[in-house]
Every structure is written in C-alpha cells, then in structure tokens.
Design a protein that fits this description.
Chain A: Pfam families: ABC_tran. The structure holds two protein chains of two kinds. Chain A is of the alpha/beta class. Chain A folds into two domains: 216 residues, P-loop containing nucleotide triphosphate hydrolases (Rossmann fold); 81 residues, 2-Layer Sandwich (Alpha-Beta Plaits). Chain A contains ten helices and 14 strands. Chain A is elongated. Chain B is globular. In chain B, α3 runs parallel beside α7. Chain B has one domain. Classes of the chains: A alpha/beta, B mainly alpha. The interface between A and B is large, with 41 and 31 residues.
Amino acid sequence: MTTIDIDHASRWFSNVVAVNDITMTVGPGVTGLLGPNGAGKSTLINMMGGFLAPSTGSVTLDGRPIWRNEQIYRKIGIVPEREAMYDFLTGREFVVANAELHGLDARAAQRALATVEMEYAQDRKISTYSKGMRQRVKMASALVHEPSVLLLDEPFNGMDPRQRMQLMDLLRRMGDEGRTVLFSSHILEEVEQLASHIEVIVAGRHAASGDFRKIRRLMTDRPHRYLVRSSDDRALAAALIADPSTAGIEVDVTEGALRIQAVDFGRFTALLPRVARDNGIRLLTVSPSDESLESVFSYLVAA
Amino acid sequence: MYDPTVARLTYRALLGRRRALILFALPALLIVIAGAVRVLTGADDQVASDVLGGFALATMVPIIGVIAGTGAIGPEIDDGSVVYLLAKPVKRPTIIFTKLIVAIAVTMVFSAIPTFVAGLILNGNGQQIAVAYTVAALVASIAYAALFLLLGTVTRHAVVFGLVYALVWEALFGSLVAGARTLSVQQWSLAVAQKVAGGDLVTSDVGLPLATVLLAGVTVAATWYAGQKLRTLTLAGEE
C-alpha cells in the first residue's frame, strides 16, 4: 500500500503558474490524470517523480518527501513522455542497464521484457524501434524493480489500438495487484476505459475528482450551446423556450441564426427535432458551438 | 562511488556519437603535423617543444576535454534521457564521479597518447620533451574533464562556453594578459611538465606548488558542485 500525497502544491516557472494549489491523494489502483494539453499534468507528474520541487506545498510518498530523495526510486517506476532513450543500445541492453542501476541482474530485466512482450525485438537497436515499441521498452525499464508506484506521462501517445489495449491490460493488472498506477492523458475515452479513479486538471488547477461516472456526468450535464438556423427562427425560439431544457435563446440577427443554451443535454437533443417537425419548421443548421475539450474542461473548473 | 553501469552507458554514449569523430580527427592532425615538421625541419628540440606546447597542449587537449567532459553528461540532460539514471536509487555524486572518471580516461587516451607519439616523431623524446608534454596532457586531462563536466551539468551551451574558455581565455587572453595565465589549466599543467623536463624548453608562469594546489582544488570543487547540481536537476517536461 503506497500512497502519494500532494498537499497544497504549487509550481511556477518565473511568472507562469503551471500547477496552482493542488491537493490530492493517489492511492492503490489505476488513477487517470485528465486534462487538456498544457494543463500542468506533466509538471504535476514531474513533482511526483522527484524531478521538480514544488514551489510551495509538499509532495510526499508514504509521508516521505520525494524531492531530493533518490531512495524513493526503490518504490517508484517512471515512464517519461519524452522519446529520448539510449538509442545506441539494444532494447535488452537498455533494460539490463536499468536493472543494474537498481542493483538487480539480467533476470529482472528479462522478466520485465517478457511482461511487455518485447522479447522478440530485444536485440535490435532502440533507434530502429517504432514509437509503440519504445513505449514498451520504457515501460519495461520502469518495471524491472517491480515498483509499488508507477507514474506514466501520456503513455498511449503514438500507440496503435492493439498496443494501446495491451498496455491498458497491463496497467489494469498492476492496479488490481494493489500497485499505485497513475497515468496522464488528454483523452477522456482513454481515461474512462482504464482508470478506476479520475483527477481532472485544467489550467494548473484541480478541477474535479471521482470515478468516471461522476466525471462523465459532470461533462454531459454542463450547459451546451448550439447554433441553429431554420426556416423560421423566431417561431422555433418561441416553441423551444417553453421547455425547461433550454435556459436561454438569443436571436442573432446579423448571423441569421439562433444561439441556444441547453441545460438538459439529453432532453434538449430529443426536443429540438420534435418541436421543429410539429411546427413545420425546417432545420438548416444545428451545430454545437463549444464542444472543444478546453471548454468542456473549463466548465468543470467553474462547477 | 563508482558505478560500472553508469560508466558503460557514458563511454558508449561518448564514443557512439558523431562528435566522437573529433576525438579521432584532432590527434590524427597532430600526428600529421608532427610528421610534416620532422620531415621539413629535422629533429629540433625547440621546434618539438613549440609544436607540442602550441598545438597539442594549448589547443588539442582542451578541445578533447570539452568534447569528453561536456559529452559525458550534456547530451543526456539536453534530450532528457538522464531521467533513466536519475530515477534510480543511485547517489548523484556517484553518477558525477563515475562520469568524471570516464571523461578523464577518454581525454587522456585521446590527448596524452597522441602527444607522446607526436613527441617521439618530432625529436625522439630528446630532453624528455615528449614525456614532459605527455605528463602535462595527463594532468590537464583531469582538470579539463572536471571543469567541462560541471559545465555540461549546469548549462545547455556547455560546448560553446567550453570552447570559449579553452580557446579565447587560455590562448588569447593568456598570451595578452599575464594575470590570466595564472588561472589557466594549461599553465598549471606546464608547471608539472617543467618539473619533468628539467631544462628551459618547457616553462610555466605558475610555480609547481601553486599549480598543484589549483589543479587539485579546481578538480575537486568542480566535481563536488556538479554532484550538487545534479541532485536538484529539474526536468521541465515538454508542455
């Protein structure tokens, strides 16, 4: 049972705040760190991995500070996002070197290579590997000492669907074994499939926390904005506003369109075509106007 | 204090990179120059001393030192692969000390051996000149490797700074400003060479006791500080 505690941690780089007063506890099982690019996920993971000191607050592993404490790596395995490895080595040489640095021998390396199913290419130079193969060798290097904590920064980037599934299975298995597994991603579906617990980070702040059902609900329950053009905008607006699923409708005269704010996503999407048909109105355009990931996330921050 | 795995990774990285070509090219150039000088002027102790002092010790040794010293850690920090060393329960000073040993060894092999060979070609080690400059190269290798390893740890522009120090400070300022020569690895190592050669062909502006103290002091201080810097090395990530 190993737990990482982040207590009111902030990190800034000169006058840019990358992580802003985050408090969270990462325990056994698989935790997904979700947030758009640039949200501060890597900064947070670097603090958990001991490569960055928190500017204020603390980051500890079972009560011991992680920064400037190299003994912590007996318990932590790290899979960095960056591609750079020792490309001039073969996969096997690389993993063996990682095992030796932990005071282990080639058997540990061989076990880790088997775990990630990279034995077939272990004697090729890393420089010849595909992105997915690199990812798996990185994974093997982090697993040689069977750490109780595994930190992965965007591990699924550049993987094909099959490799993605394999890695998900592996991480799920490690979570089930009681290890603390934390991975970051900017893709909700990835996190949803794998993580039993989700932490959402937006613009350096801790936006939400919970299981995927809760996060999913927060995301679908947010107000949705639509841009609608029809054969009779005012009649449509009048009919829609009568229903509680819409919170506001603006008739945008210059655009020749309606800007609709819906509060009940499910109900509104069923309502709109029915109302149009009943009133003999033709819908010309229906487009969601704030579906970008950033806007979805920033809604969570406000919530 | 010494980790064989770190050593293996370091020397393979050093010799596997394109930069390593300079490690072979410069000594080859020295040997060619020595051969040409010998053919053109015959064996002459003064000329031998000029070539070894002017090219081997003043130019080749520091450049080899820059490449080996900064190359032992700089590229790893630049591309982020140093993570794999740092995410291990290995003491940071051990990593630095091991890399220093490798950098010293590489600098010695690629500077002292060619210096000795060039000396033999130039005047057959007359008046101990070949041996004296070889000893100077060996001594300078230690201090250069330590200095440039530190530079590689603290800045991404280590090669540039290293070359500026080696070529501008030691060569240019050293020849213009007398005081600058006191703070010059080259002069310190020449002090040791002067002792070995005995005659007045090899001279230094710095006395042997001071030179010894400065060589040891710079090496120890640079190594210690690099170890401290590595303990607090931060990786900003790609965001």
